[in-house]
Amino acid sequence: MLILASRSPRRRQLLAHLDLPFRVVIPQLEEDIAPVATGRPEELAEALALAKAEAVAREETEGVVIAADTIVVDGDTILGKPKDGSEAAATLRRLRGKTHRVITGLAVVDAASGQRAASHVVTAVRMRPYSDGEIAAYVARGEPLDKAGAYAIQEEQFHPVASYDGCYCNVVGLPLKALAILLRRAGLDITPDSLENLPPQCGGCPIVVQ
Q1: Count of structural domains, the chain
Q2: Of 204, 39, 6, nearest to 106 (Cα)?
Q3: Widest pairwise Cα distance in the chain
Q4: Sequence-ordered list of residues with C-beta below 8 angstroms from that of 15, at least 6 positions apart, any chain
Q5: Going along the chain, which residue ranges are E strands?
Q6: Is 189 considered catalytic here?
Q7: Residue 19 near residue 197, CB atoms below 8 Å
Q8: 131 and 92 Cβ atoms separated by less than 8 Å
């Protein structure tokens, strides 16, 4: 059995593309640890993903637990989920018209054996020059508050992203090709047929596997 350690509906929707049975267990951890982050952001993303996966694996007797954590990095600054509308607006103004990095850490933990693996995927994202009025309308809808960097690439009304270099699914929150590699190494039967259902935007997934 595959277990997704996540509260994110977007990750549930993406994982369904692999056409593997899974259930969801929400990890009992604080997800936004960016304010106390230290070290390289890639290491942080993997560490947060591992923490989620291991928290759920400790409560299970069997199954492969997967978890992910997505962070947005502008220069050397990690941008977490905004605390309120004012912080969301400031973050969106900061990112406007610039290119930043979106890093998703992935973790896979075998609940029975404790064996684990981690990886991360990086996508470069360039934001369009949206107006202050567009920011205000987006924030007023409450959309940015549960999202790292205060935006969603798939948001159609605000559509904040001008272009991206890398994996689209990584920016949504779950790079499926990278995850498929980890699951295959964990012993799951990931066949070519499973990968045929992946969204076409999930191409271009350079990954680092540890």
Answers
A1: 1
A2: 6
A3: 53
A4: 4, 22, 66, 174, 176, 179
A5: 2-4, 22-24, 64-74, 77-79, 99-110, 116-127, 161-165, 207-209
A6: no
A7: yes
A8: no
Q: Is the dihedral of CA 23, 56, 166, 84 positive or negative?
A: positive
CA pair distance 130, 144, nearest whole angstrom: 15
CA proximity to 202, closest of 17, 66, 8: 17
Catalytic residue among 32, 69, 76, 84: 69
Dump pLDDT digits (tens) for 21-40.
999 999 987 655 544 455 78
Cα gap 142→158, rounded to integer Å: 12
Taking only the tens place, the pLDDT of each residue in 31-66 is: 555 444 557 899 999 999 999 999 999 999 999 999
CATH number of the domain encompassing residue 156: 3.90.950.10
Model pTM? 0.88
Directed axis angle between helix 85-95 and helix 132-140, to 10°?
140
Q: How many residues does the chain have?
A: 210
- Eight-class DSSP state of 59: T
Question: Which residue's structure tokens are 């400790």?
Answer: 58
For residue 26, the enclosing domain spans: 2-209
